Amino acid sequence: MITIWGRANSVNVQKVLWLCEEISLPYNRIDAGLQFGHNTESEFLAMNPMGKVPTLVDVDFVLWESNSILRYLVMQYGGPSALYPADAKARASIDRWLDWSLSTLQPAERPVFWGIIRTPEAERDITKIATDVAKVTEVWKVLDAQLKGRSFIEGESFTIADIVLGAFARRWFGMPGIERTRMPNLERWYTLLATRSGFNKHVDVELS
Ligand SMILES: N[C@@H](CCC(=O)N[C@@H](CS)C(=O)NCC(=O)O)C(=O)O
Questions:
Q1: pLDDT (0 to 100) of residue 80
Q2: Which of 19, 22, 158, 185 has its CA 20 to 30 A from that of 82?
Q3: Which has the closest alpha carbon to 97: 175, 181, 155?
């Protein structure tokens, strides 16, 4: 059985747990990161020199970077799957959203998440949060435009792009006390995600 190292409130761990649910893959999860520690210990750093979660162990194979873990698990355990189709163009189209999440979405949404959820209310910098919300709104608008006329990010099939961006969308829609610009396509897509058990079980949980 695979082992996933990582605390369950990490967005990058949540993506992996959601995928496991989608492909009915059993796993063993070990809490690590933040208050659980482990990720600064030498044994952990030998597996993942970045000291981050999630880190996957599959017998003698170790992998880090959540998006790489998703791709690996579908290819290894998902069978022929619409989640990450073999066709090169379909696959590359999904990959660009995974890359976009790392290069563009997460750097923009992280300050908002940390500024609100990981900062005590009395210490929150409301002005900075408003500036950061305005910046990430422009990024979400790109996905809102992509979702026009389609059920999911790459068309009518649910893929790992929906898992990756859906995990961040949960943070966006769950953030208290911010002004969210209406984005009808994004909102419609988000309600579709809520019909998936992996989302409900692992992602739609309290933000912490
Ligand atoms: N790009 C990496 C980012 C990994 C990352 O930054 N993980 C965070 C949690 S979301 C982490 O390990 N933080 C340190 C900690 O939890 O102690 C990935 O997608 O796996």
A1: 86
A2: 185
A3: 155
User: Which amino acid is present at 141?
Assistant: K
C-alpha of residue 93 to centroid of ligand 1, in Å: 24
Q: Where are the alpha helices (DSSP H) in the chain?
A: 11-22, 42-47, 66-77, 88-100, 106-116, 126-146, 160-174, 184-193, 197-198
Distance 110 CA to ligand 1 centre (A): 11
Interval 13-65: pLDDT, tens: 999 999 999 999 999 999 999 999 999 999 999 999 999 999 999 999 999 99
Going from the N-terminus, what domains does the chain have, and what CATH number goes with each?
Answer: 2-77 (3.40.30.10), 88-202 (1.20.1050.10)
d(CA 159, CA 187): 18
